[in-house]
Amino acid sequence: MTHLSVNVNKVATLRNTRTLGIPSVVRAAKLCLDAGANGITIHPRPDQRHIRPADVDDLAALLKNYPRAEFNIEGNPFHGYMEYIRRVRPTQCTLVPDDVNAFTSNHGWDLRDKNNFDQLRPLIVEMKSLGCRVSLFMDPDPSQMPLAREIGADRVELYTEPFAAAFARRDQQGVDPYVSAAISARNAGLGINAGHDLSLENLRYFLQRVPHVDEVSIGHALIADALEMGLPATIRAYLKACGQ
Q: Could you give the residue numbers annotated as active site?
């Protein structure tokens, strides 16, 4: 069974187009949790294009009413991210090497770069001292999984956009690097998450072939499906694809 963490960034994106406060990010997260989602993910960015500082606090308060659910905060630890972690101490910190102006996350950490390794290490130590699990957003490169463990990470989140693109063009070999990376991560003692462009169309295929996936984080496709199906029904469909 793979856990489902719902990324509610896109709910905030829609809300931010007006000043009415709707749709409510907290209300959407509550609907997801009540429908069985295992957690909520957000990715606050410095430009506040979707999630805003108040959302972080409001969602942290909501999650206190769901002790079995996880709160996962994604972001670049060098771009104002740590203030949120120190304040709300989420279940999981997912560290992503995105630029301030990045359209979306588009690559994982290169831990062979000594600067990345040396700068991340003390922050990972601090996050773990705050009681947070630490996951590193990584490309499906088996050779870097031992480095993720060496730096102190508990998990890796495999960046799945290349898989999704390959799946869309019916390239069955597009999943192969993820199988190898997952095996390498497991052998290194890491937990395995996955996310980016996963959907109802490709999720079951991915999970049937990639071993040991603990959690998927899904936002864009899930919110798009919810426009047609409603959030509760959509959550149930994704949970089914996750084997729940």
A: 43, 74, 196
